[in-house]
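Troubleshooting log. The previous run stalled partway through. Resubmitting the same two chains, unchanged.
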Amino acid sequence: MNERIKALCRLTLDGKMYVRPTPVAAVECPENMGRIEREADELCRYIMNQEPLLSEHMAFCGRFNFDGSVVGDAFKRGGHKYTQQALNKYYLKPQENLSTMEWQHATADYRQVLDIGLFGIMEKLKLSYFALEDERRDFSLALHKVAGTIIRWCEGVSRKIREFAKAAGEENRKRLTRLANNLASVPKHGAKDFYQAVLTIYVCFSADPDSVGTLDRYLQPYYDKGIADGTLTREEAKEYLQELFLMLQASTPKESVHFTRGGESHFCVGGYLPNGQDGFTDLSLLIIESMVELPTYIPQVTLRWTEKTPTEVLYKVMDLERQDPHKRIAFTNDEKRIKCYTEICGFPYERAVNYTMVGCNEPAFLGAITGSNSKGNILRCVETLFHKRDEKILAASDFDSFYSLFEEELFSDLQKIFDYDDMYNSERAKDYSYISSLFFEECVYSAKSLTQGGGKTVTASPMLIGVTNLIDSLIVVKQLVYDKKKITMAELIQALKNNWAGYEDTRTLILKTAEFFGNDTDTSSTVSKRVYDSLYRFYYGKKNLFGYPWLVGDLLGYNEHHKWFGEGTLATPDGRYSGQSLKFAIGQSEGKDREGLSALLNDVAGLDKAGIACGSTVTNLYLDKSLIENEGSFRSLVLMLEEYFRQGGVHFQLTYTSKEDLIKAKKDPQSYSGLRVRVTGFSDYFVKLKPSIQDDIIERTVKK
Amino acid sequence: MKATIFDIQRGSFVDGPGIRTTVFFKGCNLRCKWCHNPEGIDREIKMLFYESKCIGCKKCKSVCKSKACILCGECAIYCPSMAREICGREITPRELFDIIARDKHYYKNGGGATFSGGECLLNPDFLRETLSLCKENGIGTAIDTAGNVPYESIERVMPYTDIFLYDIKCITKELHKAGTGVSNGLILENLKRLKKDFCGRIIIRIPIIGGFNDTEEELRKIKAFLDSLEIEEVELLPYHTLGVHKYEALGIDQTEFSVPSEGQMSAFREIFK
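Second attempt completed without errors. Output:
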């Protein structure tokens, strides 16, 4: 990285590049002003008063943040009154120990503004205006006004930079003048070159500071043109990308706990293009290399793997990943996801390929919001069976009869999780999102707010916590109660009702002999597939209140849902005590997977043939660090994970460590302050994690 | 037909090229003082007891249903502190093949099954049948042997074997006898014949044991011997102490050896370049 980027890097990591909101005094609005007009008016006044952050080192500028006094962006949701009310009621507060409300993500589709600029978007709004109903017309006018305001604000910033440049040295003045000139052109008009394209994204990111989406795809034409006509070098492109990434890091204030977490500003490279070809290019590689070279935590990137991705590309990206101390790279499988999005969600192929990973690890479509991020306690149905419907299961003569009873409870809970999710969304839908909707093509076309389902291709993806506890519980019942008859159902029920007290031997038998998930035995694979088949049968064809198709996931996010749900869940057949945390994500679990990495990967890859779990799914692999020290072993690891994708695995992310190091790090955080781990989709310093999450990571098996 | 094995390692990146499943057979006719798999020396199934893990709860006694140990494993199952462990289980070729085949998709790029031990070639008929099942199903095979077996045993498995991982500890006869309890005459003779008869890959594996064979002189003798056979592929495996705890569980005293330094290993690798 060059000296200019190094200087910006220091400022960013010192927290000096975060753009503090400029307070704007409230103004009394005329009484006859409608809500939409008033909210848009307040927003525009707020934007116009925002002071840009200027630095002599910058080649880009134009970022602003909201302070909650007006209706801001749809990610942070400042000023979203109804969302705030719903958060006060439901966020971090488990309902019936079954559902918790969570944050949502949305991914702007920058292609429209890159193609036609804000002027072009304003023209589109004008054209569609007369075909709209009254309320939509108000919203359309509001979007038009906001677009015009951003243009005027950029023109004002351009003038301020020109003034600022006068006092700068020659080299800086030249760069700043170029910036000032270009800010007068973009995002007002479409971008003409790579620099303008990056500047457009830089400015517009303020409108939805969440994900830059499929960056390589929409920057590719500008990159190709610049390289071909000699107006851009690879080094210059890298410099621009690095400044863009530094802005993403600086979007979070340093005092926030999220500053060192990689769970925001997640984006993708590679993957299938609409023409069916693999989209990984030299620019994709440059994007990852540029990002990894920066000593920052944000953003993180996922490689979308396809069957056409050369092994050497996977090797190269995994190699960058193993060298990245900040763990910013993850991997997902397009084959499985595209199949799911076309066959289960019913999206046309050219839309299905247009997804990105966002947040911790949520799939999102460009120009759409994720319809749900709520968390569900999937283990509660097992608790109900053993603690409340024990007479019924005592009468079940075989595993199939037992499974029918289980499925009744499962479906009943899933329906409630479903209903809760609709309730959260209906509360949030009372808000309008003005500035974010502007960068979502379908919102512009239909003049419908992003918060009200205005996006084009959307999915709802509740995350089911405790999936491996559930599968393991069913394995115990099948293997040890029905197949091998080592335990009677009556004994198991009593053991659970007594929280294993007096039944310690039964618990030991279970822990030592059950063929738990991840061991790739006939029992583990049969039971896990059956559970996912049930999930498929429940969710297939269902749509949420906005009409979004449902997928499921197992992601935890930043919060301790697994702990809260666990605290309210009585003992379960997998050997779990009452009150013990639930497991999250699909991957290693506290030494219960004993047969090696290939066995674990077989069970994970094989459990969901249909792809109903192509929502926010995470497979965390904790591997012994010796695996990456030997080149031969590392290459074998690459080939193994490539094959895992071929077999149907959806996702993986890696942490190289040892159990001993993790235990020592918990006891002696000062000595392990640099130990960074993958948690549930985001990465963070191990010593900064909450103790319950540290414990969960320590319990995960580290594969050798 | 059955054999006794003590471990199966799936998804292994060692013991041969690529991604492998390694099967460890019980029974060995060498007595290497540094052995890191001492539980594989005896052919019989054994109860391991880790005294340092025992919490004295006597659960093992309360669950035991017989007067003399019949190796049923119940005490190991119910031991809450993992102080007891049954080492070894009988398996048929078909059962073993079914486990190996579960990872078939990972064996591309030169991977496959490795049969190790102990000395796997003490079970030539069992091996031949398992190997043939692998070959019929397109799975690559490797035999990890110390070579101290009748040559007929090697001949039995040769048609179904892709790779021999052949251990050479030293050339000096007296040293070999002192370190392993047996002479290396048969081992070296078998390697000569194998090189002549076998058209697959032979990889020589030399454990570098501090205080035993970690001298330039000894390693140069090995090099000269291998050169005379025109064998070039050699792996040097540094002695490690990861198996030390197993000696405690078996109630055997272990001779202490030192771990070669990285500098020593680099110098020794130069000899075999």
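Takeaways: Chain A touches chain B at residues 504-505, 508-509, 512-513, 520, 595-599, 601-602, 627, 630, 632-633, 636-637, 639-640, 643, 646-647, 703 (CB under 8 Å). The mean pLDDT of chain A is 92.
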